[in-house]
Amino acid sequence: MARGYGMALLAAISVAYLIHSSSAQTTFTVGNTTGWTVPPTGAAFYSTWAANTTIKVGDILVFNFATNIHDVVTVTKGRLRCLHRKQSHIFRHPTPPVRITINASGDHYFFCSIANHCSSGQKLMISASDASSSPGPQPTAAPAPKPSTPYSIF
Questions:
Q1: What is the tens place of the pLDDT at every residue in 65-109?
Q2: Region entry Disordered: which residue ranges (predicted)?
Q3: Which helix (H) or strand (E) holds 124?
Q4: Which CATH number do you get for residue 46?
Q5: Using one digit for the tens of pLDDT, what is the confidence trace for 51-61?
Q6: Residues with Cβ < 8 Å from 83, sequence gap 6 or more?
Q7: 134 in a domain, yes or no?
Q8: Element (H, E) at 27
Q9: Among 121, 67, 55, which residue's Cα sits nearest to residue 93?
Q10: Which residues of 86-124 are buried (b: 16+ CB within 10 A; e: fewer)?
């Protein structure tokens, strides 16, 4: 009987961990150690970074860049044309580091509005999923107990 309680306790702890880990936010540094700059390896740099990064609602993007050299502009898909007009921006973040919490699922668009940085590849599209839409790690099922026989002592 004590073994049954132990298994139930283990199962309850596992479920609590899964619930906690699925709602935890993750902070991502855009571009990793390169940061937010004109891509050194070509225009596909940030799209490659995004393709290898799973962003969920509640996660935080951190844009690290040099003051007065870059900025981060939040735009809608229809405005992601490397425009420098102020009316195309949802919001402009000129002072680093910029921390943006992803508050909705779907696609999110960012670029640098300085000079020709955007057309040189300093732009990013991320696709965020709902935090509850992708399952976390599943607990391993405990092995089924061996059937008892009439001759079993335990």
A1: 999 999 999 988 766 667 655 555 688 999 999 999 999 999 999
A2: 128-154
A3: strand 123-129
A4: 2.60.40.420
A5: 999 999 999 99
A6: 113
A7: no
A8: strand 27-29
A9: 67
A10: eebbeeebeebebebebeebeebbbbbbbeebbeebbbb
Containing domain of residue 95, as a range? Answer: 25-129
DSSP one-letter code for 9: H
Residue 52 CB partners (closer than 8 Å, separation 6+) = none
CA dihedral 40, 41, 47, 50 (to 10 degrees): -70
Which tokens sit at 9?
């306790």
State yes or no: pLDDT of 144 exceeds 50: no
Mean pLDDT (the chain) is: 78
Q: Total domain count for the chain?
A: 1
